[in-house]
Amino acid sequence: MIKRALRSSTIIAVILVSLPAYIKSQQVTAETKLFNGKDLNNWVFKLKDPSVDPTKVFTVSNGVIHIGGNPFGYMRTKETYSDYKLHVEWRWPAEATNSGVFVNVQKPDTIWPKCVECQLQAGNAGDFVCMNGADMTEHTDKTKPFVKKLAQSSEKPVGQWNIMEVTCSGNSIEVKVNGVLQNKATNVNISKGSICLQSEGKDVEFRNVFLTSLKTK
Questions:
Q1: SS3 state at 95
Q2: Strand pairing of 43-47 and 204-213?
């Protein structure tokens, strides 16, 4: 009986010691779907021409977001986020063109809000664009908003799905395109905000838009 009691006590002690680490790991991997595959109810919209109905520019079909590109603007999450890994899949349905993923987006809503754009422009996916006062250590040429990517293009041809992963941790941002590290930013002067998908010229499609929290509290 004494041996059984000691074994039970040991098992309980191991569980109690392991539980905080298990809980922490569960928190670290908590996933938030920004797009539910059905509608855009948790997004708000900003267009350069306010007379245009956003539902004509931003549509959903078969689990895919279609953005028409005209007029310029974006769809923005209603919530703000910090310390996360964002997963976005995108493709050009007909022509390689231009769009972007905005992170740490600040209010008020303007066509070019204060934020860091993770560029999706064909051939330049992974560039940073420091918009409307956003800044980082790597932004050395203040006459231009761009911080060029680190590697050759890792984009796929028109019609194929690409994956962009954006890790925002404190005041740093890291971008991978199809698994290739394309850019890193440090000492970014904004570390929290909304997330946007851009309308910029022509058709682009998105799917599987979600983030994984890096917070451990």
A1: coil
A2: unpaired
CA distance between the termini of the chain: 41
The CB density around residue 149, as the number of other CB atoms within 10 Å, is: 23
Answer whether 128's CB lies under 8 Å from 117's CB: yes
Instruction: Please list, in sequence order, all residues whose beta carbon lies within 8 angstroms of the beta carbon of residue 48, skipping any fewer than 6 positions away.
Output: 71, 72, 73, 111
Is the CB of residue 196 less than 8 Å from the CB of residue 75? Answer: yes
Q: For 24, which DSSP code?
A: H
**142 Cβ contact list (under 8 Å, min separation 6):** none
Decide which of 16 and 101 is more confident: 101
The answer to whether 213 and 190 have CB atoms below 8 angstroms apart is: no
Which is higher by pLDDT, 165 or 20?
A: 165
Q: Which residues pair with 81 in a beta bridge?
A: 193
> What would the two tokens of residue 132 be?
């409307």
pTM assigned to the model? 0.85
Which H/E stretch holds residue 89? strand 84-91
What's the DSSP call for residue 210?
E
CA-wise closest residue to 154 among 189, 119, 188, 186: 119
How far is 57 from 204, CA to CA, in rounded Å? 11
Q: pLDDT tens for residues 40-98?
A: 999 999 999 999 999 999 999 999 999 999 999 999 999 999 999 999 999 999 999 99
What structural domains does the chain harbor?
A: 30-213 (2.60.120.560)
